[in-house]
Amino acid sequence: MKEKVVVAVKDLGKTFISNTKEKMTALDKVNLTVNEGDFISLIGPSGCGKSTLLRIISGLESHDTGSLTFTSEDENNGFVFQDSVLFPWKTVYQNVVFPLEIKKQKTKETLAKVDELIEMVGLEKFRNSLPKELSGGMKQRVSIARSLSYNPTVLMMDEPFGALDAMTRDTLNLELSRIWKESGKTILFVTHDIDEAVFLSTKVVIMSPRPGTIKEILPIDLGEDRDLAVRGSEKFIEYSNYLRGLLEH
Ligand SMILES: Nc1ncnc2c1ncn2[C@@H]1O[C@H](COP(=O)(O)OP(=O)(O)OP(=O)(O)O)[C@@H](O)[C@H]1O
Ligand SMILES: [Mg+2]
């Protein structure tokens, strides 16, 4: 079966002009093809342009050179940030419904899906709670449900679990892997954590800094059904050691 391309990035470049009027090339000749159903992680040293690339693909930032093509008709992208920003005065349910209100997509069907999503992230008991009543991990889960509520073509996640402790992170990694499998979504994910990248992804994109370029794209062949035990497997350890080596040089 031929893979369906969702996003094609060709020779993409971005230069920022700093406060002191200096040119800073954040991205140079970046090429990346995102296929439907891919789970792609971007890893690389701080400042190599991971967030910039994600922001450009999601339309939050412009690019200077090269091209960005969406093959799907609607460029409907979801974004989950490192610090989930939820409306403090809205309940979990109201936060998840909010994008549908903004996009005027509130219908019987989409609202039914909101309850499914809240269940999918395991928060049905907290449907009517306020964000201040939730833990950090639970807030991230609300943020994930919210970004899925309007059925985005590509879900972009910029270090969504960066601020969480290792155990919560493990739980959310498992959950995200399940959500990805169940929803069939295409996900672009940024992380600093090599093991997290290997565990979640179908492909890991390694970036190098100044100017940010793609060093290598490593396909991860660990099957779709992954549990945390896979991290002890020979293949997994080989992948992470290889990536660690690439990042050191
Ligand atoms: N709005 C901006 N104006 C000027 N420079 C910027 C802007 N956004 C990013 N940069 C610069 O572009 C480069 C890439 O930044 P970016 O945030 O994409 O890196 P990153 O790989 O996400 O890093 P981190 O891992 O620390 O989050 C950095 O050198 C940064 O200073
Ligand atoms: Mg970043």
What report would you give on this structure?
The protein has 249 residues and is an alpha/beta fold. It has a domain at 1-75 and 192-249: 3-Layer(aba) Sandwich (Rossmann fold), CATH 3.40.50. 34% of the residues lie in helices and 26% in strands. It has seven helices and nine strands. The protein has helices at 50-57, 92-102, 108-120, 136-148, 166-183, 194-200, 234-248, and strands at residues 5-17, 23-35, 39-43, 65-70, 77-80, 154-158, 186-190, 203-208, 213-219. The strands form two sheets. It has a six-stranded mixed sheet with strand order 5-6-7-3-8-9, with helices on both faces. Strand 8 and strand 9 form a beta hairpin. Helix 2 (92-102) packs across helix 3 (108-120). It is globular, with a radius of gyration of 18 Å. Magnesium ion is lined by residues 50-51, 158.
The largest β sheet comes out as: 6 strands, mixed
The helicity comes to 25-40%
Supply the CATH superfamily name of one domain.
Answer: P-loop containing nucleotide triphosphate hydrolases
Identify the strand order in the major beta sheet: 5-6-7-3-8-9
The top level CATH class name of one domain: Alpha Beta
What is the CATH architecture annotation of one domain? Answer: 3-Layer(aba) Sandwich
Mean pLDDT: 89
Task: Sketch the topology as an H/E string, one letter per element.
Answer: EEEHEEHHHEHEHEEH
Structural class: alpha/beta
Distance between the termini: 37 Å
